[in-house]
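2 proteins. here.
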Amino acid sequence: MTAESSNNLFNRIAELNRSGAPFALATVVHAEDSTPRSTGARMIVHPDGTTEGTVGGGALEKKVSDDALRLLGEGKSEPIEYDLGKGQEGVQTGMICGGHVQVLIETFQIGMKLFIFGAGHIGKRLAELASSVGIAYWVIDNREAYACDELFPGAAGVVHAEFEESFSKLPIDEKSYIVIVTYGHRYDGTCLQGALKTDARYIGMIGSRRKVKTLLDAAAQEGLDVDDDRIYAPVGLQLGDSSPEEIGISIIAEILKLKSGGSGEHMRNTLGKNG
C-alpha cells in the first residue's frame, strides 16, 4: 500500500468514525514467507460486505471479509491466523503460495448520534459540546448561510434543506438523539412532528411551557402520540441560567444522563450509598 493510498484509507476510517457508521478494519499484523500482502496492509469491511483497501485479494480476502462480517454481528474484535498452504494451524484458505498471516480484525459499532435542528447560537454551542465529548452530530437548517461546513468542521453532516424534507436525508435510528432549536415556533413544530415519526430515542425541544403545549396540541391534532416518553420539552436539565452556553450544557447533560442511566444527583450526596 502506497503512502497516498494509506492516507486515503485512514481518512476514510476517520470519516466513518465521525458518522457513527459500523465497519470492521482488517490489518495484517504478521506475515511469513509467501503472502499476497505484507505486514500493515489494511482493508475496511462494511456491513453489506463491500470493502475498501485490500489484504491480498482472492481466497484470503474472502475469508477475512467473512470473518469480519461475523465479528461485526457479534460485536467482537480479535486476531485470526490464516494458513496459505504452509501447513500451519489457522483458517485454511485453500491457497498454495505457502505463507501464513495473522490478521487483526477490529469492529467499530454504531454509536449514539445527535441531530441538531437549528444552526443558531444554541445549535452552535451544542455542536461544540458534542464534538468535545466525542458524539457524532449532524446540523440541519433551512438557511444556507447557517448550514455550511465551515461553521461546523467537526460535523458528521451539515444539511441545508427545508426542515420537513430533511428527515429523509438523515440516518436517524433507535440510537439517535434529536434536539430542536430552530429560529421559529413554526419550524419547531414541523421538526417535532417529523421527529415523532422516526425511531429516535430522544426528542428534545426548546421553548416555554406555553409554547411546548401549543406545539404538542398541534401534533396531537395530526394524530401523533404526544404522550410519547421520548419527548423532553422543555429540553435540558434545570441549571438556573439562560445563556446559549449553559442551555447547551444543560441539554448535553440531559442526553448523557439518559444515555448512561445516571441519576443526575450531586456526587457528594452519593458517597457511602453503595459501600
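next one coming up
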Amino acid sequence: MDNIIEHIDAWLIALAFAVAMLASWSIGWWRGRRMAPESGDDPGIKFIDAGVAILGLLLAFTFAMALGRHDQRRLTAVAESNAIGDFHTCASLLKEPFRSRLQDLIRDYARFQLDTPHERLSESDQRRATQRSLEMQAGMTDIVREAIAADTPIALALTNTLNNVSSTNAARLETYQEKLPWSIVLLLFLSSLIPSFLIGEKQGLSQKTHFSGSAAFIGLVALVIFVTLDLSQPRQGLIRVSQTPLETVIQSMTK
C-alpha cells in the first residue's frame, strides 16, 4: 500500500481529498436540510469543533514529520558533499602517482553522484546506480590500500575520509526509502471527511449555506495535504533537495 501511495502524484491525492470532502459536505448539507430545525443551543457544534481540532493536529503532525524527513535528506546531501570534499583534500597530500589517480577517481565519483537523479530513479535503476557507486568506492579503496602499503604518513586520515564517503552515501540513499505510512494517509482521509460532513449538516440544518467559507476550508486542507505528500515523495515530488553543495565541491576540485 505504501508503494501505491508513493507512485501516485501528490496533487492527484490532494484532489481526491478535496472532491471527497466536498461530497461529504454536500451529503451533510442535504441531510441537514431534511432535518427538523432545533431550538436553543445546539450541542452538536462541539463535535464540529472537536473534529476540526483533531484534523488540525493530524495535519500539523504529518506536515512536521514530512518536513523533518525532507530536512534529513538535505542534511545528508550536505554531509556527503563535505565528505567527498574532505577526501579529495586528503588525497591531495599523497605522493604521485597515488595523488592524481585518486583525485581523478574522486572527481568522477562526485560527478556521477551529481548526474544521477537518485530521487527520480526507479528501483531497478537505483540498484544499478548503487552498484556503480560501490564499484567506484572499491576503486578508491584499492588506491588507498596501495598508498598505505607504500607507507604514506596520512594513512589514518585517508582511511577515515574514505569511510566517511561510503557511509554518508549509504545514509543519503537510505533517506529516499522512507515513506509516509498509508495508515496515516487513511487517517487523514477519514479525519477530513467527518468534519466536512458535520459542517455541511450544521449549515443545512440552520438554513444558512456558507459555500465560500466551506470551499476555502476544503481548499486549504487539500493544499496542506498536497505539500505534505509532496515532501514525502522524494522520488517524484516537486520539492527537491538542492544539489548546490555537491556542485560547489566539484567546482573546487577543478580549480
